[in-house]
Amino acid sequence: MIKKSKYLFVAISLFLLSCQPNPWKGKKFYVLNCKLNGYVATLEEVHLNFISSEYIEMKATLKSGLGDISTYKTDPSLGKLVKTYKYSSSNSDGVEMIDIPGLHLNFRTVALANGDRKASNGEIFYTKSIVEILNTDEAKERIVKASSDPSLANMYLRMLEPEKTGKVKIKEEQPEGFEGE
Q1: Residues linked to residue 95 through DSSP beta bridges, in sequence order
Q2: How many other β-carbons are positioned within 10 Å of the β-carbon of residue 6?
Q3: Beta strands in 66-165 (DSSP E)
Q4: Which contiguous run of DSSP H or E holds residue 32?
Q5: CA 85 to chain centre
Q6: Is 170 helix (H, G, I), strand (E, B) or coil?
């Protein structure tokens, strides 16, 4: 009888441990990245969907560079490429640790008053996509926060404004004193 109750206790304990709520499961966040690679700057946003207590899906929602901007609303193929990664998390005194080995990410996050989360590496996990708030002051604030160098923020802000003609405008200048034939 003691042996059965011992196994029952172990089974109940394991069940209760497996039922602990994962703070990330079911959550969806958006992360904005301002990248500068040599002379090429890009602005990207990814959607992180924590589909279970072990797996996360990641897909692009915005890509912009050199006057060309595409979002999941204007380019449906952008959001179709979904990558899945395994992750683990733990919670200690309101600070949540998350580890995504496939992306080589391991950081702490804290909840902000509006539901967004701020990571120890400076990234902010937003609950709303920048695509939903384009051309607002809130979108501009996000880009300034995401820019690694404040002096580059204006360049990234201009990337949200697509070139309507599709052509690069080059102003031709003539040297002073030049007279045509």
Answers
A1: 92
A2: 10
A3: 68-71, 83-86, 88-92, 95-100, 105-111, 117-119, 124-125
A4: strand 28-37
A5: 15
A6: coil
For the chain, report the end-to-end CA distance as a whole number of angstroms. 111
Q: How many CB atoms lie within 10 A of CB 71?
A: 20
Q: Please give the backbone phi and psi of residue 30, each rounded to the nearest 5 degrees, phi first.
A: -125, 135
Bridge partner list, 44: 33, 63
The pLDDT tens digits for 80-116 are 888 999 988 887 777 788 888 888 778 888 888 888 8
Question: How far is the C-alpha of 143 from the C-alpha of 163, rounded, in Å?
Answer: 19
How many Cα atoms within 13 Å fall on the side-chain side of residue 56? 25
Task: Flag whether the pTM goes above 0.70.
Answer: yes
Tokens 């700057």 identify what position?
41
Tokens of 99: 């580890």
> What is the per-residue pLDDT for 171?
41
